[in-house]
Design a protein that fits this description.
- The structure is a single chain.
- This protein is an alpha/beta fold and 498 residues long.
- The chain folds into 4 domains: 146 residues, Rossmann fold, CATH 3.40.50.450; 62 residues, no CATH class; 178 residues, 2-Layer Sandwich (Heat Shock Protein 90), CATH 3.30.565; 60 residues, Arc Repressor Mutant, subunit A (Orthogonal Bundle), CATH 1.10.10.10.
- The chain has 18 helices and 15 strands.
- It has a 6-stranded mixed β-sheet, covered by helices on one side. A 5-stranded parallel β-sheet has the order 2-1-3-4-5, with helices on both faces.
- Helix 5 links the parallel strand 4 and strand 5.
- Helix 12 packs antiparallel against helix 14.
- It is globular, with a radius of gyration of 27 Å.
- It starts with a strand and ends in a 6-residue tail after the last strand.
Length: 498
């Protein structure tokens, strides 16, 4: 089986790149076996009918490969360039469309800017700066095309079992903790005392030959970065609204995926502003408070980055806190068939790492329904913030915009900004918390000596639910435990702990 590729671009702008790319595809041992290339300039001059030939060739091809630069090119009577006509024809014919957009500081022609925006909204495109980058991106795109049609059989990274992982590389305690939580919050059908290999096989993380999948190490590994060094998360805080030195803070977190999410979320929440009111803004003697970004939206963005990243990439997830925004970078593009425009509305869930996503779902970190990005939008808008942005340029990025405390609709003394929670919590905190978390916090305020077991009995919540709520309250620096669970007590913080 051979697939026909139509290479489309402004010929003068990419004359060399078009020829080099065609030669590369034809001569590559794998690509040359599956693909043939059409170049308009290779058609004998006497046979060229520019008015109709290229559109007929698009219709006769399986793949439209567009190279988009700064120039829009010559237009027809309707003012549409040949490249855009070819792109439209491929869409009308339901052909595979793969586009590569030149990264440049030079201004594009206005019509070309509109064309690029159109491509961004309709398909997943890749960026390139040099021919080498273009060639690599084309190879990856064509390989993915073959994989999607099962001409090449490649398992997802998280399901691959060729990394030499053995049971002793995994933490039995982590596996037991997973089973306990998954049974409580997702009704996971496995005995509480199940052996580690039984659990792994139930999660499709081990086969009958005892080979263990990569995702098992990411989920339960004692030292996951020993196998996958780039699975760490890098967190940075900058003083300005751009990358600049010196950085205000820089941390590299390592551990399993759950630890990475929790550590990165904590980094953000302890580095953003916290509005603190005064006693006269409420009906009680306690002080209202509100973080600058919603905790749940921050965590969701980080969870998505860790769960859905490309683990074959040498890059790491990056959490970058600027003076005006939070950016979360995830190596790898959106899943095939997904576009940025689809993220703001109901869409199907296409996990890049399905086994990893399933286990994180069972732990309550992700949902299966594809609602995560919509939830982020809703939470930011409910918080009074601008809607988040997403970008897909070979790697995926989500941007949450910070709100200056001085612009907050709250009144009160702003001198407490960054000072944390002063003297307890009241209704002002409830805007941060779910109803269950509010009830747990209320129970602690009424009885600082209450134990976790008594909280479970009193609230009738699952123990895992109570433990997650307590963990969140501690991450928000609203609460700390003094002493052991049975003999200690809770303390509502007057200041967040460093």
């Amino acid at each position: 089986m051979s697939f026909r590729i139509f290479i489309s671009s402004v010929q003068k702008e990419f004359a060399k790149e078009r020829k080099w790319l065609a030669d590369y595809i034809r001569k590559d041992a794998i690509l040359g076996r599956f693909f043939e290339v059409f170049l308009f300039e290779e058609v004998p001059a006497q046979e060229r009918d520019a008015a109709g030939l290229y559109l007929n060739e698009v219709a006769a091809s399986d793949i439209y490969l567009g190279i988009i630069g700064n120039a829009y090119g010559n237009t027809n009577a309707k003012g549409v360039s040949a490249t855009e006509q070819e792109y439209n024809e491929a869409g009308k014919r339901h052909r595979e469309r793969i586009c590569f957009v030149l990264k440049t500081d030079k201004p594009r022609e206005p019509k070309q800017e509109r064309f690029v925006a159109k491509v961004n909204a309709e398909i997943v495109r890749k960026g390139f700066s040099t021919y080498d980058e273009l060639r690599t991106a084309v190879y990856a795109a064509l390989a993915n095309f073959l994989v999607s049609r099962e001409y090449i059989n490649v398992l997802p990274f998280d399901a691959s079992k060729n990394s030499g992982i053995v049971l002793s590389d995994l933490s039995v305690a982590k596996i037991r903790r997973f089973v306990k939580t998954a049974r409580e919050i997702r009704n996971f059908k496995i005995p509480a005392g199940a052996s580690p290999d039984h659990v792994l096989m139930a999660l499709d993380l081990m086969d009958d030959a005892g080979r263990i999948a990569n995702s098992a190490e990411l989920l339960f590994g004692k030292k996951p970065q020993r196998f996958f060094i780039s699975s760490e998360v890098k967190c940075m805080q900058f003083f300005a609204n751009r990358v600049s030195k010196p950085m205000a803070d820089y941390q590299v977190y390592r551990g399993d995926v759950f630890e990475l999410v929790d550590q990165a979320t904590h980094f953000v929440m302890t580095h953003i502003k916290n509005w603190v009111g005064t006693r006269d803004t409420g009906d009680t003697a306690q002080v209202p408070t509100k973080f600058e970004l919603p905790y749940d939206a921050v965590k969701e963005a980080i969870v998505n980055a860790v769960c859905h990243r490309d683990y074959t990439s040498n890059a790491s997830v990056q959490v970058m806190l600027f003076s005006d925004r939070l950016e979360v970078w995830s190596p790898g593009p959106l899943p095939r068939g997904m576009t940025v425009a689809m993220l703001a509305k109901p869409h199907r869930s296409i996990p890049v790492n399905p086994l990893l996503a399933n286990a994180m779902f069972l732990m309550g970190y992700v949902e299966r329904a594809g609602t995560g990005t919509e939830d982020i939008i809703v939470k930011c808008k409910d918080w009074g913030l601008s809607a988040p942005d997403w970008e897909d340029d070979g790697d995926f990025k989500v941007v949450l915009y910070r709100q200056g405390i001085e612009n907050s609709s709250h009144s009160g003394n702003n001198e407490g900004v960054n000072e944390g929670v002063n003297e307890g919590v009241n209704e002002g905190v409830k805007i941060l918390l779910s109803e269950k978390e509010q009830l747990i916090l209320k129970s602690i305020l009424e009885n600082p000596n209450i134990t976790t077991a008594l909280l479970v009995t009193q609230t009738k919540f699952a123990r895992a639910t109570v433990e997650r709520a307590l963990k969140k309250l501690k991450e928000l620096s609203l609460l700390r435990r003094i002493g052991a669970d049975k003999n200690g007590h809770w303390e509502v913080l007057s200041h967040p702990q460093e």
